[in-house]
Structure formats: structure tokens, C-alpha cells
Amino acid sequence: MHPSSTIHPKPPKRGNKYRSRLAASLVLSLLLTTASGCSTKDTASESDSHSSSKSGKTIELQNVSYDPTRELYVEYNQAFQKYWQDKTGDLVQIKQSHGGSGKQARSVIDGQKADVVTLALGYDIQAIQEAGFIQEGWQQEFADNSAPYTSTIVLLVRKGNPKQIKDWNDLIRDDVSVITPNPKTSGGARWNYLAAWGYALKHNNQEEEKAKEFVKALFKRVPVLDSGARGSTTTFVEREIGDVLISWENEAFLAINELGKDKFEIVVPTLSILAEPPVAVIDKNAEAKGTAEVATAYLTYLYSEEAQEIVAKHYYRPRSKEVVNKYKNTFPAVELLTIDQDFGGWSEAQNKHFADGGIFDQIYTGQ
Amino acid sequence: MHPFEGKAKANSAGSSLPYGAGRTTVQAVTSESQAVRRLLIGIMLIFIVLMLILPLAAVFSQALKKGAEVAALAWTDPDAWAAIRLTLATALVVVPLNAIFGLSAAWCITKFSFRGKGLLSSLIDIPFSVSPVIAGFIFILLFGAHGWFGPLLDAHGWQIIFSWPGIILGTLFVTFPFVARELIPLMQAQGIQEEEAAITLGATGWKLFTRITLPNIKWGLLYGLVICNARAMGEFGAVSVVSGHIRGVTNTMPLHIEILYHEYQFSAAFAVASLLVLLACLTLVLQYWLDRKRQVH
């Protein structure tokens, strides 16, 4: 044992006392900073509400969205905030959360207090409805199947298109390596898969066996299956793996703009699929928080001319005819399949292709 | 038994050498050839450079790739500030709570004997063996909308998951064993003689704790707190599950870094990452200093 601690000679003892006082004051200051940290947060939010209390109240709105919409909603939220303040005098503060569409839906089901969701697939919103948070008929609540913007699936290739990739059938060539996320976990990947499936059906007289062979050959060309669309884009652009990325059109444009126009170019295939990322008010949460009115207005305003311009600027295809016309050079016309007419809706497509034991499992594990 | 046991014991009394070490020649320790020794040392150095120094250097060089202004902008961004504040606040709540818990647990386990002591001791280690992701899901199962206490919380309008209480709970769970694990071996080695002596001299429980136990373990305790703090600030898995990722509200620094990275803001991501690394380095310096203190006392 330490003899010094039992004898306690005087000088070190004084030192000990000093040190323990030091330790105590350390702990105290830690606690104080915690307390002051909390109080500054409180005063901050108070001052926010004070500054706006002249004209109206402050409303907080939570928008749970999917990955690639971040830039779009940063700009749209500012536009809506201004619109709503001019109209009612109230200040809306919109809090954003982004992540994989399926994961985000799961969080809302588990109790995340979203007022609105703006997700990648109707299927994910359907799941929230089935958990009892949204009233039935949400897809008819807003215009155009509650999808204020659309997108489609395109091919992103390296500058100069060195592998001469023109269409879906080039993706199954032996010398081409394809990047796409995992359809089991990624909403975007399901659109990718279905677009390829639709192309194969069309070029094989609607024979399903041929289509199966085609997507099987395509997924044989995929060296990495990331779990989400953003992950795949990073694999393709940052890690420089693969010759072609199957991607959302808006995501492809974003990659080009963020990471260099001299590095990539977009190839629009002869046939693609109309992706309708829908929006919905989470009725249960909005009613409990008293935000139903502003939440509905928030989603309705997405169809306004101003919002549609923002939508086009962020490379989503707008619904408004005028805005579509204005941006027709950005968004070339392409033959588009739709999930409802060509695949019998999301539930059917999901069960047939992506459920456990579905076609994707058969072709992917069968490799 | 060894014939020289008694003699060896006598020889090594007062020294920390293992018994018998005095009789073997010094060569025994370094009998390997010069080449082998250099090779082994070389392997270690290469490993340290590749696995520790290079990655850290990469973080800082990436952060400053687009210039110091971009890095500074990333630090002063309101969402980044909110993440930094949340991370520090979480650590400041979690560390004192774990100090109290760790002290009580170590005190209980090392100073008393009772049935189930071994069980209690292994229970403390559960957070070490359970993946942080599972820790996160545990709290969703308990406090989520469809969890055990979900309806109760809902009725009162209380939010735990996808809000800061969930983040604190997740971090608390993951960092739970750090202080106790640091203190238990130390207090076990110190034994209970000093406490017993104090009691025979009439010390009360509080006096005993503040005058005998605490001074004996204070450097070990502070060391445990520093490690606990490092982990609390860096925790990703459990927090990611319960956070809800609401920008400027429930994102901690590690989550904010991941988001920036996925948004192609690589420089910003590494700028915030380097801030976290700097905090870790600060922890390291503190740890080093405490370690020396502890060895002196």
C-alpha cells in the first residue's frame, strides 16, 4: 500500500486539499456550464418568439423527408416562410430531417413528431397510414396523386461517355460496370430496377422470363450494392467505381453541379419510369400540435408557380405546364412508364419484385 | 514446487520483478537478433503511422483543402453550432451521472461482499458487449410510439425518442461502464484496510468517503471521467437510431459530420470532424496528464 497516504505528512496533505478543491471546482464549473448551456438555449428560443410576437405567433413545422431533397427544401422553406408571414403574420420555422425514405417512414411510425412527410415512394407513406397516423385517401388530398413534382431515372456516365452507353441494353455488356443501390433498402433503387424491367419487357414482347434474365444480367454487372441512393452516388463520383450510375435525374444533375461539369454527363435512355415522390400531412401529429392548417398550406404551396420554379431549379420535373415549357431543354421528353398503369401500383410491384422471395431475391441470390 | 522459491521470494522483496528474474541473464529478454528486433519495432511503427497518424492527418488536410474560410464557415454554420452545443450538453449531463453511478457501483462491488456480486459486476459490462445500434433500438422499443411506455408518454405529450432525452439516454447507456470499470480494479487493489482503520477510529460514512476513499481514487476517477467524456462526445450508433436527424435540433456532431459528407460538402464534413478530433486530442492530453498523476500517487 502507499505508506504516504496513511501517515499524511503535512505538506503533501495541503497539496491534496488544494487539488481536491481544484477537482471540486472543475466539477462545479462543468455543472454550471451545463446549466448555462440549457438557459442560453431557452433564452434563444424565447427571443425568437419575442421578435415575431409583434406580427403573430411562431409555429414550428417538422418536415421528414428523404435524402436528395435537402437542397430543394432549404430554398422552398424560405419561400414558404415569407409567403405565410405575408399572408397571416405568423412565423413558420421549418425543421428538416433527411434520410433513406423507408427509414424515415419507420421513424414517423415509431413516434417522430413530423407534421408533414415528403418521401420517395407512396409505399412508405402507405405504411405510415397503416400505422394509423394518416387518414385514408391521402393520395387524393393534393393534386396529381399528391406528388407536386416528379422525377425519372437516367444514366450518369463519365465525361465523353468512354464506354458508349446509350440505353439500358448497354448496361448488360461484359465490359460495363454498373452502380445502383440495393432495391431491398433503397426507394430510388426500386425505381431503377423497375425502369430496367419495363425496358426489357418492351423489347421482348412482354415476356417476363426474358425480363428476368435481363435484370439478372444487369445486377451481375453491379460490383457494389449500397444501401441508399446517396451512398451509390458517392461510390460512383468519389470512389470512382463503375462506368455508369443508374440514378434519379435530380441526383445526377446535383452530382454534376457539385462535383464538376467536366467529369460526368447524363444519358437519357429511350424509356424510363415516372417517379412520383408524394407528400402527406401526418394528421395525428398535426392535429395534436394544432398545425394542421399550416401543414396543409405548406404542401399546397408546393404547387404554386414560385415553388414549381424552385422545384425545376433543383432538377425535379415540375407539374406546372408553364414551368415545364420554360425548362424543356433541361428535361428532355422521354417515354415514361408509370407505376400504376404498368406495374399495378406500389403494393403489387413491391410484393412481386421486392418482398422476401420476390423476383429480386430470385435473380440476386441465384447468381 | 521450485526448490529456490523461498530464496527467490526473499530476493525480490521490495522489487516488482517477477520471481526468479534475478537469476536469468539479461540476454534472455533480448536474445532475438538485431534484425528481428528492428523488424518488430518497424512493424509497430508502420502500423501506427498507417492506422493512426495518416488518417488523422488526412482529416485535417481534407478539412483545409478548400481553404481555412470554408472550414471556418462550416464551424460557424448554425446547424453545426447546434450540433456542437448538443454534443457538449449531452456530455455534460452524461458524465456527472456516470460519475455518480460508477462511484456507487465500484464502492459497492469492492468494499462489500454480498451474494450476486459477480452477477452485478458482469451486468455493468453489458453496454460493452451490446452493439450501440441495439442499444438505440432498445429505447425505441421502450419509448417509441408503439413501445411499452409509448402510449403513456403520448398521453402526457412527452417526447423521449427523436428528441434530446433519447440522445442522453442512448449515450448514458453506451458510456455506462467506463467509470465503474476504471475504478473497480483500482479500488480492489487498494483493499479496505484504510477504511477499516478509519471506522475503528470513529469516522462516519461521509467522512470515510471524503477523507479516505475519494482521495485514494480521485485520479483514477478523473481518468475514468475523461474516457467516458470522449466516448460520450463521439457516440454515433445508438444516437443515430434515436435522434430523428432533425437539423439544428437533434443532430450531434458525429451525425452532423455524416450528413455533411453525404451532401457532398466534404470539406465542411472534415472541418467539423477535425473539431471533434481536436476535442479528442484535448481529452488525450488530459488523459496523459492524469495518467502520470495517478502513477505518482
From TrEMBL, chain A:
It holds the Pfam family SBP_bac_11. It comes from Paenibacillus aquistagni. The keyword 4Fe-4S does not apply. This is Sulfate transport system substrate-binding protein. Residues 38-57 are annotated as: Disordered. It is found in: Periplasm. Keywords: Periplasm, Signal, Transport. GO terms for molecular function: molecular carrier activity; sulfur compound binding. One of its GO terms (biological process) is sulfate transmembrane transport. GO terms for cellular component: periplasmic space. InterPro entries: Sulphate/thiosulphate_BS, Thiosulph/SO4-bd. Belongs to the prokaryotic sulfate-binding protein family.
From TrEMBL, chain B:
It holds the Pfam family BPD_transp_1. The chain crosses the membrane at residues 39-60, 80-109, 130-149, 161-180, 221-246, 266-290. Its main location: membrane. It is found in: Membrane. Keywords: Membrane, Sulfate transport, Transmembrane, Transmembrane helix, Transport. CDD domains: TM_PBP2 (cd06261). NCBIfam families: 3a0106s02, permease_CysW. This is Sulfate transport system permease protein. It comes from Paenibacillus aquistagni.
